[in-house]
Design a protein that fits this description.
This protein is of the alpha/beta class. It has 19 helices and 18 strands. The chain binds pyridoxal-5'-phosphate (PLP).
Length: 553
């Protein structure tokens, strides 16, 4: 059996006809840049992530470059300022910082999770620190309450590299670190969700639809809900971000919608589904009733509302209990749609999401030669746009992202349940985490034969390493699996601070004139190996991988 590390052919084939149809539509339209497809994808992706603004751009590296550059143009940062960043990441995260003359300050990961070790951040903060850039590496959320607290305490921007984690959630474990945050930053988490002026058309469309609802049903519902009738305080026609909800109990985050007949038309249906998903991502619970349901059996409707509400925790005063998509946690996020990513284009593509309108405008201009008006150049920008074909393809694939993630999680669950080779360490699973498994990293207990032989310790766990005369055990596993026709990849064999391009960079110099030493990061570079994981693996393939991995000695 053959198990490729990732078959992009198979990934595309899952929705091949729809993708070809989307590409064909653009080809036939005669409009290839900055058109309807970009607009639609940006809107849908923003709604999915839970950010008010999304700007498509050429690739994920550019997305990060534009975020930092925009902060410099806006006077928030200056070249020479410091940005805290995980030492264990793909080099693009670091390049986005150094490209702008900012100074990356690498922080070691926790070996158990492979994500930035938040207990080491505070000691690295100086007067020049302007931001923390977290990376949700391998598809796992890197955000923590502690990081939120530090951003607040030192007034730091929080930037997310979400290249590997589209669809991942963060679930804050406590409300206390979230309190007191202004609306200006982290608005999606800490602030109120207020109306978004850029989405006015949608609001208007919905308002028109609202008026078509028989006011009778709405009036009846309101008469049942108002005045604390159910022991709950409801409001009607309440605006959340870019939506108007019919009724809401803010204490519970409970939204109640009445569907008139117009909800059956397919465009409206799609809009409703997206809206429901978006509200869910923001932590709201939505209940929908048809007008007929309410008119025929109001008692059943009210009973249902009561039961659901009584089972909901308090929603007030913070984000406790809410699930927040990575990419909407911080002030801005860079996303990559490189073909191999969970949401991948058929070429290069990327995006920035943010809740900051000024930053959004600057990023949009910078990625378009620095222009906000045709032939007028505010910044010396570059051409870094998302093209219409890729936007159309991404819009198709976005619809299936959650399904794909579920499949990845099933593969991962099987690996966790069945990989039992003592030479292999699996990253720790955390309660409540929503890992989207862009990659499935394992750690191969790495030691070199010479060291093992000379140690001659009977309690040494990894004596089977003696079989391998040269190289590390990790590389031996890679070769062994390759022989079995299983593709694996190392993420990443050389840590950024050890790369030639940063040989002279001040961020990566050690105290003694040599390179900076980051032992955990270096250990991961020697021990990490990624097993195949994708939404289109068959059960036989998954089992075959486990069998081979467990047989390795
Ligand atoms: C892929 C990736 C990027 C860069 O994205 P590109 O679209 O390839 O430029 C940035 N950061 C991380 C963590 C990545 O995995």
């Amino acid at each position: 059996m053959t198990v490729p590390f990732l078959s992009l052919h198979d990934v595309t084939a899952m929705h091949g006809e729809e993708i070809r149809e989307a590409a064909r539509r653009v080809i036939d339209s005669g409009w290839y840049l900055q058109g309807k497809e970009n607009e639609a994808f940006e809107q849908h992706y923003a709604a999915y992530i839970g950010s008010p603004y999304c700007i498509g751009c050429a690739n994920g590296l550019d997305a990060l470059i534009w975020i930092f550059r925009a902060y410099i143009e806006l006077g928030v940062m200056q070249p020479g300022d410091e940005v805290i960043v995980p030492a264990n990441t793909y080099i693009a995260t670091i390049l986005g910082i150094t490209e702008n003359g900012l100074k990356p300050v690498p922080i070691e990961p926790r070996r158990e999770t492979l994500e930035i070790d938040d207990s080491l951040i505070e000691a690295a903060i100086t007067e020049r620190t302007k931001a923390i850039c977290i990376v949700h590496l391998y598809g796992r959320n890197a955000m923590t309450d502690k990081i939120a607290e530090l951003c607040k305490k030192y007034n730091l921007k929080l930037i997310e590299d979400n290249a590997q984690a589209h669809g991942c959630y963060w679930k804050p474990t406590s409300d206390s670190s979230l309190k007191g945050r202004g609306n200006d930053c982290f608005a999606s988490v800490w602030g109120t969700h207020t109306a978004d002026s850029t989405q006015y058309d949608l609001l208007k469309q919905n308002a028109i639809a609202n008026r078509k609802t028989p006011p009778e049903a709405e009036e009846i519902m309101w008469s049942l809900l108002k005045g604390n009738n159910l022991g709950l305080h409801f409001r009607r026609q309440h605006i959340i971000l870019d939506y108007i909800v019919d009724f809401i109990c803010l204490d519970k985050g409970l939204v109640i919608e009445l569907d008139g007949g117009y909800h059956n038309d397919s465009q409206q249906k799609e809009y409703d589904e997206q809206r429901t998903a978006h509200l869910q991502h923001l932590g709201y619970t939505e209940l929908r009733f048809t007008n007929e349901e309410l008119l025929c059996s109001p008692d059943a409707v009210i009973a249902k509302i009561k039961v659901v509400a009584s089972n909901l925790p308090s929603f007030k005063g913070g984000a406790g209990g809410r699930l927040i998509h990575t990419g909407s946690i911080g002030d801005a996020a860079g996303h990559s749609f490189y073909p191999g990513k969970n949401l991948g284009a058929l070429g290069d593509a990327g995006a920035v999401t943010t809740n900051d309108p000024e930053l959004a405008a600057a990023v949009r201009a910078l990625a378009n030669y620095g222009s906000q008006r045709k032939y007028v150049f505010k910044y010396a920008g570059r051409n870094s746009r998302l093209d219409e074909i890729q936007a159309a393809i991404l819009d198709v694939k976005l619809k299936y992202l959650d399904e794909d993630i579920k499949r990845r999680q099933e593969v991962a669950a099987y690996y966790y349940a069945h990989i039992s080779n003592p030479l292999i360490e699996l990253p720790e699973q955390l309660p409540d985490e929503n890992n989207v498994y862009h990659l499935f990293p394992i750690l191969v207990k790495n030691s070199f034969p010479s060291r093992v032989k000379s140690s001659a310790r009977s309690d040494f766990q990894w004596t089977s390493v003696e079989h391998h005369e040269v190289g590390s055990l990790r590389d031996a596993l890679h070769d062994y699996l390759a022989e079995k026709e299983i593709g694996t990849v190392i993420h990443y064999p050389i840590a950024p601070h050890k790369q030639e391009c940063y040989a002279k960079h001040p961020s990566f110099q050690g105290g003694d004139g040599g390179r900076l030493s980051l032992p955990v990061t270096e250990f991961l570079a020697d021990a990490e190996l990624s097993l195949p994981i994708s939404p289109c693996m068959t059960q036989e393939q998954i089992e075959y991988v486990v069998t081979c991995v467990n047989r390795f000695k």
